[in-house]
Amino acid sequence: MKFTKLVPNIFYEDLKDGLELFVNCLQFTIGYNDLDSQEPCCVVQKDELSVFLFQNKEFALKDRPEIRLHTDNIEEAYAVIARSHPQFLHPNLNRVTRRPWDAKEFALRDKTDVCVIIQQWC
């Protein structure tokens, strides 16, 4: 058995909040687009990564996920995001920090409490 990609589903009460984080801040692009339907959704993509974003108030209220994105240049990622979208820096991890598990990390949090940790293994 072989798997090639993990694609998380993230639910938003208003899909515009997800697009602000993933497209505007993290520079993903919209691949699959069903934004104008009664139940808007889309797949955002960057490099080999994909995330399925859904607009669904019921599910958005039930779960606020935390996901990790690995990078090989965390300082560059931090500089770009801190300059362009500092409002997304998580108050508990708002700068690149070496963690006890030997990774450098900083975190983002959108206004709906979706958390994205950017990580580089040391």
Describe the structure.
This protein is 23% helix and 36% strand. It has 122 residues and is of the alpha/beta class. The chain has one domain: 2,3-Dihydroxybiphenyl 1,2-Dioxygenase, domain 1 (Roll). The strands form two sheets. The chain has a four-stranded mixed beta sheet with strand order 1-4-3-2. The radius of gyration is 15 Å and the shape is globular. The termini are far apart.
Keywords, separated by commas or semicolons:
122 residues, alpha/beta, 2,3-Dihydroxybiphenyl 1,2-Dioxygenase, domain 1, 4-stranded mixed beta sheet, 3 helices, globular
Strand order of the largest sheet: 1-4-3-2
Beta fraction: 35-45%
CATH class categorisation: Alpha Beta
Order of helices and strands: EHEEEHEHEEE
Helix share, percent: 10-25%
Number of helices, counting only DSSP H or I runs of 4 residues or more? 3
- Protein structure class: alpha/beta
Largest sheet: 4 strands, mixed
* CATH T-level fold name: 2,3-Dihydroxybiphenyl 1,2-Dioxygenase, domain 1
Total beta strand runs: 8
